[in-house]
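Entry type: protein chain
Record version: 2
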Amino acid sequence: IAKGLLLTEAEREHLFMLGLGRPPEVRYLRADGVSPRLQRLIDTLEASPALIKTATWDVVAWNSAAQVVMTDYSTLPHGQRNILRFMFLSPAIRAKQHDWENLARFVVGAFRADAARAGAVSEVAQLVDELCGASPEFATLWRAN
């Protein structure tokens, strides 16, 4: 019905909620990068840190302001360009953030909200298992959220 009516994703989700009482299944398609056009767009935001992340919060694109404020993602191997791994497994970020505990709580809550809608169930579960095993702080916050 949603295809036949040419509904947008938001309208499709609303239709599912009305008819079935649940959102539609989401098929997760992992992205390893962005188009040159999208990269140029975020590069124009010179004064504002901007990045693009996947459902598992892997950073796939960023601008120079994000590089200054956060980290130079180009120096990290692809597997380590993950906001959660960086936040919970890197001592450097703790030293930079004077209010790390509150930021960590916010980050885990925001990730949980993103993960609930992303459809990347197995990918998210794998990342959460890894982080729970490597970071007692993450495990505590994940259970609390």
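Comment: Strands lie at 51-53, 59-62.
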